[in-house]
Design a protein that fits this description.
The complex is a heterodimer of chains A (424) and B (154). Chain A has helices at residues 18-23, 28-36, 39-49, 61-66, 93-100, 102-115, 130-145, 176-183, 212-232, 263-270, 304-309, 328-342, 348-366, 371-383, 393-407, 409-418; strands at residues 79-84, 120-125, 161-166, 207-211, 240-246, 253-258, 280-284, 293-294, 318-323. Chain A has 3 domains: 18-231, Rossmann fold; 241-323, Ubiquitin-like (UB roll) (Roll); 328-418, NADH-ubiquinone oxidoreductase 51kDa subunit, iron-sulphur binding domain (de novo design (two linked rop proteins), Up-down Bundle). In chain A, helix 12 packs antiparallel against helix 15 (393-407). The longest helix of chain A is centred in the middle third of the chain and has 21 residues, at 212-232. Chain A has a 5-stranded mixed sheet, sandwiched between helices. A 4-stranded parallel sheet of chain A has the order 3-2-1-4, sandwiched between helices. Chain A has 424 residues and is α/β, with parallel strands linked by helices. Chain B is an alpha+beta fold. Chain B has 2 domains: 4-63, Arc Repressor Mutant, subunit A, CATH 1.10.10; 75-151, Glutaredoxin (3-Layer(aba) Sandwich). Helices cover 44% and strands 12% of the residues of chain B. Chain B has 7 helices and 4 strands; from the N terminus they run ααααβααβββα. Chain B has a 4-stranded mixed sheet, covered by helices on one side. In chain B, helix 1 (4-14) packs antiparallel against helix 2. Chain B is elongated. Classes of the chains: A alpha/beta (424), B alpha+beta (154). Bound molecules: flavin mononucleotide, iron/sulfur cluster and FE2/S2 (inorganic) cluster.
């Protein structure tokens, strides 16, 4: 089984430095594109590879790049931004790539920047990743000294500057338009779309925002081609995926597996199955803002289309396990508390609605809830759903709540009937 | 007044953006790095350095959770209270630390040694429960490990 993204990552060891990375074939992709590929050829190749964005939404990367207007149509600087904000509860995949193979990301960013003819690129990284900060800074310096960044890269005439920006905290800064505001030094509040970043992004200029895992793929696709990439997956969506499991399993962790590996394989073969005395009750497949799946859906393939068909989203691909000894209401309450706290406060339904939902869930936990409260929760899953708020934050928060109400209704009712949490 | 060092570091950051104002968050972080927190005076200093109004700078400072507008202890403990850490028992870790230090979330010990703050997921979920002290991550926590861990921070 091929694991292109993580092959050279050794847990608890320093990542490959520039020389070591070059020995594995690193930066050959940059040479190849600067010597002999037109930007449009790169975009075409990435399009045919069907690389779907690994930041959560699964938007096709080649298509996103092709939406950037050409220089003859829009003058001025264009930007590439790597989204390394990773604050979605339950998610720790980009951290692994940032700490484990920084040059792979940087090489991917150089190629992506060349493809959209960006002359400036930023890595927007969450503040908590202190180790990654040191590693990325060093790797950027190495890439500058070796002439892969800066002016006239490898004598090609192409110029690119790459900087690291570490954030000051707030989940919403991972949303790409909020990220751009944060990068401009402002409050991290989402922007109205359209215009999309491709036409009006950072400092009002054409911008592409891609996830760390997405960008780390680019050197491999340049080297091995699109057929190779598609064949890596079991479902035709292309590539492998970093899958993670946390919760009451025997061996929580992170693995690179073909896109389309089933939940059962990931939990049983890689995470070692449930801990003794615990049963699988529910699965949040891809970070806090994805709908629950339940134990009977364990044979679902973890790819974009299959998880969607099962009623949820692949999201970040790092799953959280709800076991039978954890109260589902407490689990959901914890998620909603997070979303309420992290609301940017810009639009009223989200700013006022999420704390309301949080208070109602508190009533359940305290044993004071009534049937009316179930109605209030159900009402919010509609009115904070897609289309009613300024960005996808509140709808994301409603995903685990709506599916929790559907699958664990009896558990909600027990809190009402028994007037206390049955798990306490 | 900004120190010479603060001003120099801020100037370095402004070079990375098309105009100085865009380095506002970096400037706030630099000042916090040197002084531990961001006072009203610091807001005014940054505002004049970056040619912004004080309200504008405060609007930015008050938005971000890792920018402190109140003094904090010499060491800041950030305890992950997100869901994987909840399942794996962060509450007992918090209870122990809280009792030992005699402070609750948001409070600082009277000797100014520690502040405890709840924090969202730290990206250590496969080794939950997790926390950070200053720049260091600790995970797979158990109550037995805590005394020794805290000793390192005076
Ligand atoms: C509330 C919210 C938070 C997000 N956080 C992240 C994040 O931390 N990292 C990320 O890559 N994408 C995040 N996204 C998705 C980004 O908006 C964007 O779709 C993504 O970075 C695009 O990259 P991709 O096309 O490579 O997937 C978030 C979206 C929302 C609505
Ligand atoms: S939905 Fe929430 S996070 Fe998004 S803009 Fe509205 S208030 Fe901000
Ligand atoms: S939930 Fe605590 S580190 Fe992720």
């Amino acid at each position: 089984m091929e694991t292109p993204l993580t092959k050279y990552i050794k847990p608890n060891q320093a990542p490959l430095d520039l020389k070591e990375y070059e020995k594995t074939g690193g930066y050959e992709g940059v040479r190849k594109v600067l010597k002999g590929m037109l930007p449009d050829d790169i975009i075409g190749l990435v399009k045919t590879s069907n690389l779907l964005g690994r930041g959560g939404a699964g938007f096709q990367t080649g298509l996103k790049w092709s939406l950037v207007p050409k220089e003859k149509d829009v003058a001025g600087v264009r930007y590439l931004v790597a989204n390394a904000d990773e604050m979605e509860p339950g998610t720790f995949k980009d951290r692994y790539l940032l700490e484990g193979n920084p040059h792979q990301l940087i090489e991917g960013m150089i190629i992506a920047s060349y493809a959209i003819q960006a002359e400036k690129a930023y890595i927007f990284m969450r503040w908590a990743y202190k180790k990654a900060e040191v590693i990325i800074k060093k790797a950027i310096e190495e890439a500058y000294s070796a002439g892969y960044l800066g002016k006239n890269i490898l004598g090609s005439g192409y110029n690119l500057d790459l900087h690291l920006h570490t954030s000051a905290g707030r989940y919403i800064c991972g949303e790409e338009s909020a990220l751009l505001n944060a990068l401009e030094g402002k409050r991290g509040i989402p922007r109205a779309k359209p215009p999309f970043p491709a036409t009006s992004g950072l400092f009002g200029q054409p911008t592409v925002v891609n996830n760390v895992e997405t960008l780390s793929w680019i050197p491999h696709i340049i080297e091995n081609g699109s057929d190779w990439f598609i064949k890596l997956s079991t479902s035709g969506e292309g590539g492998t995926k970093l899958y993670g499991v946390s919760g009451r399993v025997k061996k929580p962790g992170l693995w690179e597996l073909p896109l389309g590996t089933t939940i059962r394989e990931i939990i049983e073969d890689y995470a070692g199955g449930m801990q003794d005395g615990y049963q699988l009750k529910g699965i949040i497949p891809g970070g806090a803002s994805t709908d629950f799946l339940i134990a009977s859906q364990i044979d679902t393939k973890m790819d974009f289309a299959s998880v969607r068909a099962a009623g949820s989203r692949l999201g970040t691909g790092t799953m959280m396990i709800l076991d039978d000894k954890t109260c589902p209401v407490a689990f959901i309450h914890n998620l909603i508390k997070f979303f309420a706290k992290e609301s940017c406060g810009f639009c009223t339904p989200c700013r006022e609605g999420l704390p309301w939902v949080e208070k109602v869930l508190m009533k359940f936990e305290e044993g004071n809830a009534t049937l009316k409260d179930i109605e209030i929760l159900e009402f919010h899953t509609k009115y904070l759903g897609p289309g009613n708020t300024f960005c996808a934050h509140a709808p994301g928060a409603m995903e685990p709540l709506q599916s929790g109400l559907k699958y664990f209704k009896d558990d909600f009712l027990r809190h009402i009937n028994e007037k206390h949490c049955p798990w306490r | 007044m900004l120190s010479e060092k603060e001003r120099e570091e801020i100037l370095e950051e402004t070079k990375l953006y098309p105009y100085p104002k865009a380095a506002c968050i970096d400037a706030l972080k630099i000042v916090q790095h040197h002084r531990g927190w961001i006072s009203d005076e610091a807001i005014a200093d940054i505002a004049s350095e970056l040619d912004m109004s004080r309200d504008e700078v405060d609007g930015v400072a008050s938005f971000y959770t890792r920018l402190y507008r109140k003094p904090v202890g010499r060491n800041v403990i950030l305890i992950c209270d997100s869901v994987s850490c909840m399942i794996m028992g962060y509450e007992s870790i918090y209870d122990y630390i809280s009792k030992k230090l005699g402070i609750k979330f948001g409070e600082t010990t009277s000797d100014g040694r520690f502040t405890i703050i709840p924090n969202t997921c730290l990206g250590d979920c496969d080794h939950a429960p997790a926390l950070m002290i200053n720049n260091d991550h600790y995970n797979n926590l158990s109550i037995e490990k805590i005394d020794l861990m805290l000793e390192k921070y005076q």
